């Protein structure tokens, strides 16, 4: 039977693959990272229930890996797509892992013995990783990857691996996959907070992004779930969240709302108070957009729990004597205040990944004014494109939260399933 190719292995891609495969149709997931899971794997909790993120995602990752009709290609990229609905030819470039996936059992002995430590992108730079590594303990597939760029060829990983799974040499490979339908679920990236120079990101160590905070407060993160100031390692007594960093910003050409920032800031604010009840937590906002089911109640719960909502933005972040100062006008009261904070968290918005433009050009799919892929009709066909047989899921078309991303994945999966059935054997 013809198969479906899913480009992207985040929660939307995983859900789409599972839905298609459960209809008896083969699926191939193409994921550029060493593990599937996407951004959701980096999170601690999800709103509005504050459920453990990996408790929801990890079973899906395991299910999709074990499904007999699903093939996962990690460290892989789509280089070309030819053909039409029912008869696509997808050219996939497989990057070298420098580890034999059929032999590696993910024991981690090579990771423990490796002497090299480098920047860990999965931990948003808060932590470090080795030159041979797993992004996090629950990676799928459960196989390490050797970073040939930073490896010093000390040979210790070769010697310690009793299965001889670590390879000295590896090379790129190209594979052509025939598919009846394609689902694009390449996700998003976060706005670069350094562009908002007035907030002092990367200039003041205690100004961090929301993702860095997520990795801090995550029990499996680099700090073991403790929120610490990067300047002195102390627990902050006051934390301020600054909203709309890279969203609703004409100067940055990011005029759209990123949809989720208000809610994840409320979530993280409540998590701080759970960990440190005496901490003073404030959120500086323009408008609170609590639009989903249970979101307004979540907002009320946060305020009742002690989260201070201040309507106003700081003009800048100033370094004080051991703290940070945020001068602003409370637009509800007209009062000008200098807010003091031990830690400032910038709620950065979503933007398209650079590959979105490449995919759009190769497939002839238009992009909207913000750089996301355009669907054929936002109301009548929110997952379809002008190319029959090619569908979109998750945040590739617009910023979305996890429930909405999963919903679009299900819709795209059903459309792709229909294409396969119409294409026949």
TrEMBL record:
Its EC number is 1.8.-.-. One of its GO terms (molecular function) is 4 iron, 4 sulfur cluster binding. Keywords: 4Fe-4S, FAD, Flavoprotein, Iron, Iron-sulfur, Metal-binding, Oxidoreductase. Pfam families: FAD_oxidored, Fer4_9, Pyr_redox_2. Its cofactor is FAD; [4Fe-4S] cluster. It comes from the Archaea. Belongs to the HdrA family. This is CoB--CoM heterodisulfide reductase iron-sulfur subunit A. It comes from Methanocalculus taiwanensis.
């Amino acid at each position: 039977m013809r198969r479906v190719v899913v480009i992207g292995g985040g929660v939307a891609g995983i859900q789409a693959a599972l839905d298609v495969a459960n209809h008896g149709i083969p699926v191939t997931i193409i994921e550029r990272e060493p593990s599937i899971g996407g951004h959701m794997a980096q999170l601690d909790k999800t709103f509005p229930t504050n459920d453990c993120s990996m408790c929801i995602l990890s079973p899906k990752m395991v299910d999709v890996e074990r499904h007999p009709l699903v093939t996962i290609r990690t460290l892989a990229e789509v280089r070309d797509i030819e053909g039409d609905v029912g008869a696509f030819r997808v050219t996939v470039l497989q990057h070298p892992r420098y580890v034999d996936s059929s032999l590696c059992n993910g024991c981690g002995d090579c990771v423990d013995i490796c002497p090299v430590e480098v920047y860990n992108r999965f931990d948003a730079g808060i932590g470090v990783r080795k030159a041979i590594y797993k992004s996090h303990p629950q990676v799928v597939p459960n196989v390490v990857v050797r970073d040939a760029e930073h490896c010093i060829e000390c040979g210790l990983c070769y010697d310690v691996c009793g299965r001889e799974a670590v390879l000295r040499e590896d090379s790129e490979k190209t594979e052509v996959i025939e598919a009846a339908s394609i689902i694009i679920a390449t996700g998003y990236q976060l706005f670069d907070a350094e562009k908002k120079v007035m907030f002092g990101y990367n200039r003041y160590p205690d100004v961090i992004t929301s993702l860095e905070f997520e990795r801090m407060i995550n029990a499996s993160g680099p700090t073991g779930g403790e929120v610490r100031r990067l300047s002195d390692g102390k627990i902050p007594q006051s934390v301020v969240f600054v909203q709309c960093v890279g969203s609703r910003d004409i100067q940055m050409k990011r005029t759209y709302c990123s949809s989720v920032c208000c809610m994840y800031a409320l979530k993280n604010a409540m998590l701080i108070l759970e960990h440190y009840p005496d901490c003073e937590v404030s959120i500086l906002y323009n408008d609170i957009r609590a639009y989903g089911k249970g979101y307004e109640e979540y907002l009320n719960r946060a305020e009742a729990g002690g989260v201070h909502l201040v309507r106003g933005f700081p003009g800048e972040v100033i370094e004080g004597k051991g703290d940070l100062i945020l001068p602003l006008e409370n637009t509800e009261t007209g009062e000008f205040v200098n807010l003091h904070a031990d830690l400032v968290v910038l709620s950065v918005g979503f933007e398209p990944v650079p590959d979105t433009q490449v995919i759009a050009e190769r497939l002839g799919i238009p992009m909207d004014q913000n750089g996301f892929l355009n669907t054929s009709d936002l109301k009548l066909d929110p997952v379809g494109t002008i190319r029959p047989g090619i569908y979109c899921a998750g945040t590739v078309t617009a910023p979305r939260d996890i429930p909405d991303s999963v919903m679009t994945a299900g819709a795209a999966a059903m459309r792709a399933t229909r294409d396969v059935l119409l294409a026949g054997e």
